[in-house]
Amino acid sequence: MSSTDRPGAVMRAAYYEKQGPAREVLQVGEVPVPEPGPDEVRVRVVVSGIHVGDVGKRRGYWGSTMAYPRVIPHGDGAGVVDAVGECVDPARIGERVWVYLAQSYRPFGTAAEYTVVPARHAVALPDEVDLDQGALLGIPGITGHRAVFAGGPVEGLTVLVTAPLGGVGRAALAVARRGGATVLATVRHADQVDAALRAGAHHVVNVREGNAAEKIRAIAPEGVDRIAETDLAGNATLDVEVLKYHGSIATYATSNADAPLPYWPAAFKNITVQFLSNDDFPESANVAAAADLTAAVAAGDLRYPIAGRFPLDQVAEAQDATEKAGATGRIVLDI
Questions:
Q1: What is the per-residue pLDDT for 62?
Q2: Which residue intervals define the domain Enoyl reductase (ER) in the entry (predicted)?
Q3: Which of 15, 224, 235, 277 could bridge across to 160 with cysteines, CB 3.0–4.6 Å?
Q4: DSSP of 85-140
Q5: Which residues fall within 8 angstroms of residue 212, CB to CB, at 6 or more apart?
Q6: What is the average per-residue pLDDT within 105-131?
Q7: Rounded Cα distance, 135 and 46, in Å
Q8: CA distances from 20 to 26, 60, 223 (A)
């Protein structure tokens, strides 16, 4: 019997009991080890991946509130299955996995020695993929996949990815290219062009050099079919200009939630705009994304640079670093 099987077993975890700045509300201490229920697995977490949604929930951005009196943060991570609930094959114990949505509609995320997730949210990680990369796939990766495939397959289509070097953008580039699309990316700095090409874009346009629409049209004379959009408010006018008739925008963020949109130009083109929130994608979309992302990272088509890593005791510093990392890379927490 392991220590976690004994009644009253505890583990080290980061948690907060009120929303606010990281250094004011995040604590590290001992909490009870969670037990897996039916159709759940418990994972011994090795690496916890952090994304901006974790920060937003802790800060109370976007109108988010705390549904639980205590929250262990972070939705993504990687580790080893160490216990299973009813209806789960015991052979999964010992399996290397990456997990996603650990803290969506649940109080305990991956910033802890153990977490419990639905069995389907613990995805087998191939031996050739290190746990760091597995820990970073999760919610950003699934969001990128959804932004590309929400409208169906992309074989033979032209897909434009904005912010291609962020957590969502890198995944979108990889899965769009693997899906058979011609992939364009837009960046805002000259030194990002080569990085976006290495990350999987076929073509890159620096929008700050001017004539962005003209340059995109030179690459895609008929217009692009789909756009994976990180800033709907900031890019809507350009998006509508370069989209084909009946094209679509899948947007997961915006710089201004109240900004007006170019309604009539979009209406005349019969453009579809799909708004994405990663906690509530259809489960079938999550499962498809998990399979495609695992294949992409195993093949080397998707790789996240790591801009910083921190021990559990420095979770506040890690979350603050996540807000500043941007396109430079991702932040991980060693458990």
A1: 79
A2: 22-333
A3: 224
A4: -TTS-GGGTT-EEEE--TTSSSSB-SSBSEEEEEGGGEEE--TTS-HHHHHHHHHH
A5: 186, 205, 238
A6: 97
A7: 9
A8: 9, 7, 44
Distance CA 131, CA 153 (A): 29
How far, rounded to the nearest angstrom, does the alpha carbon of residue 185 sit from its chain's CA centroid?
18
The span from the CA of 46 to the CA of 124, in Å, is 15
Where helices occur in the chain by DSSP H, the ranges are: 22-25, 52-59, 131-149, 167-178, 193-199, 212-219, 232-242, 263-268, 283-299, 315-325
Amino acid at residue number 203 = H
pLDDT at 61 over 50: yes
Distance CA 61, CA 193 (A): 31
Instruction: Taking residues 174-188, report their average pLDDT.
Output: 98
Beta-strand pair 114-118/306-311: unpaired
Q: Contact at 8 Å (CB) between 119 and 34?
A: no
What is the sign, positive or negative, of the torsion defined by CA atoms of 203, 209, 211, 212?
A: positive
Q: What type of residue sits at position 177? A: R
CA-to-CA distance for 167 and 160, rounded, in angstroms? Answer: 16
Q: What is the largest CA-CA distance in the chain?
A: 67
The whole-angstrom separation of Cα 298 and Cα 64 is 35
- Residue 254 to residues 162, 170, 200, 276, 320: CA-CA distances in angstroms? 12, 18, 24, 11, 21
Q: Is the pLDDT of residue 326 over 80?
A: no
Q: Give the residue from 74, 60, 11 showing the smallest Cα distance to 319.
A: 74
Contacts of 274 (CB under 8 A, 6+ apart): 150, 151, 248, 249, 250, 251
Burial code of 49-58, b = ≥16 C-beta within 10 A, e = fewer?
A: bbbbbbbebb
Start-to-end C-alpha separation, the chain: 22
Judge whether residue 3 has pLDDT over 80. no
Give the per-residue pLDDT at 47: 98
